Amino acid sequence: MCWQRWRTKMLRGLVTMRTLTTLALLFCLSLGLVLIQGMFEMKDRSGELNTSGTVVQLSDKHEEMNLIRQIVRRYPNISETEKTLFLSLKRADYEERRKTIVHYCRSSKQKIGEKIFNNTLVYDRVDKVSYCMIAKAASSTWSTQFINLGNPGDRIRHQYRNALQLLAPMLFPPPADPVAVWNDTTSIVVVRHPLGRLASVYQQKFVELASNAGWGRLNRRIIQMYGKGRTSEDDVPTPEEAILYVISNIESGLRVDQHWRPQHNSCPFCLMQFSIYANLNLSFKSRRNGRRYVVLHPGVWFGEQTESVHQSQPVQV
Known about the structure:
The chain is an alpha/beta fold. The chain contains 11 helices and 9 strands. A hairpin with a 2-residue loop joins β7 and β8 (291-297). α3 packs across α4, α5 (139-150) crosses α7 and α10 (213-226) crosses α11. Residues 1-58 and 283-317 have low confidence and may be disordered.
């Protein structure tokens, strides 16, 4: 019966060969983009964790995730024991992800994650915190945190209000040899499920910024390339048309836009190791008394106000 319904749709033209081709290409793209995401997926782990003399038995990953959620939901009103337990669990996650990535980099014949893009690295020498940003993977959130650390004047903040990812590396440029000093800092990288990342790109860039000069021009180009039968009044490409363009842009290798550049090509995963391997799909946020917290690692418990030695003197760019 299912086949008959599918065949009927095919005959009625509701499912075109072009759509099927797009789905096939999207599937292939997702397989390629999911590489780093897969590295970050946590395997089931059971055992005992000692937290300041308290032994907690975790039977499976589901129980562990629930425990983490409970702790984060109550943060900052948690005990030292709960904080120690949380950090122990997160350290174990990061270490497991690090080992998985190192193993892949050493065993794979593919040369990936070895290129450094200086405009994606943020290096705070004073606070000893560093960050490699991946567009559409919480890069605005983390750029804002570093901008708050840099404490630029109001004029600079206003000038770069729509270009946070440009301002953060300007305030904290990478050193001449990032590899040599990276391990001296608490370093952060955040990834996101590739399909969720593409959906975010489509909604924010192609739809919400359709009236923007740059994105509007790209929209018209995409419709001209892939929107057969579309009228000149259309200003937003369909998801199918946008995906076809993204795939074509990635396959060409020419000026691949950072917003859909494969994540394993955005940060040097095989060249440098990170203290925090965060997964946006597994991030935990807590809102207490009107304040929002993101808890990841000792020293990186960011709230709305982030204290830093930089804040004693505004930084001008």
